[in-house]
Amino acid sequence: MPASYQPHTVGDDDQERTMSQTVDTNLSAAEATVRHVLDDKGDEVVWIQPQETIGKAVEVLRDKRIGAILVKDPQGALVGILSERDIVRRLADTPGRTLPQRVEELMTPEVETCSPDESLVVVLRRMNDGRFRHMPVMEEGTLVGLISIGDVVNYRLTALEYEALKLKQLIVG
């Protein structure tokens, strides 16, 4: 038997047990809401009007480095969303004739939205089931943001990095 071995004794049970996982850390991802993502990301929303050309929309997508753009009418109401996928599909259907077309011809007019207080897990499930990557965030009828699957992944990665740092600090002391 090694010299460092000490058998279990009655007094060993009196020590406070610690755990690397707690109910709080395990539930934190499940309790995260759209508002948490918007708080980190910001609430800037890029939009275009329906009568603009696809060429203009492509420039905005490129310049802002985004994958979708919201479409608002002149009164400011949300009337659609235009994604890179929508444009690529049309490029395949009308090669060389896509850029002059109008946004309203390609946009998705039935836009699924979410509220800031919705669970990220629920919103991600809706996005996955609907096979789309961007969702406008509405609060009391007003557009307050746009989240993407990428935003959610970034939010979760940051949270995991923070949790890992806390664990490292706990271990190191």
Summarize the structure.
The chain has 173 residues and is an alpha+beta fold. Helix content is 45%, strand content 15%.
What does this protein structure show overall?
By secondary structure, the protein is of the alpha+beta class. The chain has one domain: CBS-domain (Roll), CATH 3.10.580. It is 45% helix and 15% strand. The protein is built from 7 helices and 5 strands. The strands form 2 sheets. A 3-stranded mixed β-sheet has the order 1-2-3. Strands 4-5 form a two-stranded antiparallel ribbon. A hairpin with a 2-residue loop joins strand 4 (134-139) and strand 5 (142-148). The longest helix is centred in the C-terminal third of the chain and has 24 residues, at 149-172. It starts with 22 loop residues before the first helix and ends with a helix. Keywords: CBS domain. InterPro entries: CBS_dom, CBS_dom_sf, CBSX3_CBS_dom, Diverse_CBS-Domain.
List the topology elements.
Blueprint: H1 23-31, H2 34-41, E1 47-48, H3 54-64, E2 68-72, E3 78-83, H4 84-93, H5 103-106, H6 120-130, E4 134-139, E5 142-148, H7 149-172
Parallel strand pairs: 1-2
Antiparallel strand pairs: 2-3, 4-5
Q: Looking at the structure, what is the overall shape?
A: elongated
Q: Helical element count? A: 7
Please report which band the strand proportion falls in: under 5%, 5-15%, 15-25%, 25-35%, 35-45% or over 45%: 15-25%
Query: What structural category arises from helix and sheet content?
Result: alpha+beta
Query: According to CATH, what is the topology?
Result: CBS-domain
**Overall number of structural domains:** 1
Following the backbone from N to C, one meets helices and strands in this order, namely HHEHEEHHHEEH
**Major sheet characteristics:** 3 strands, mixed
Strand order of the largest sheet: 1-2-3
CATH architecture identity: Roll
Mean pLDDT: 86
Superfamily (CATH H level) name: CBS-domain
**Span between termini:** 31 Å
Strand element count: 5
Rg is 24 Å
Roughly what percent helix? 40-55%
Query: Which class in CATH terms?
Result: Alpha Beta
**Low-confidence residue ranges:** none
Keywords: CBS domain
Pfam families: CBS (PF00571)
Protein name: CBS domain protein
Organism: Salipiger bermudensis (strain DSM 26914 / JCM 13377 / KCTC 12554 / HTCC2601)
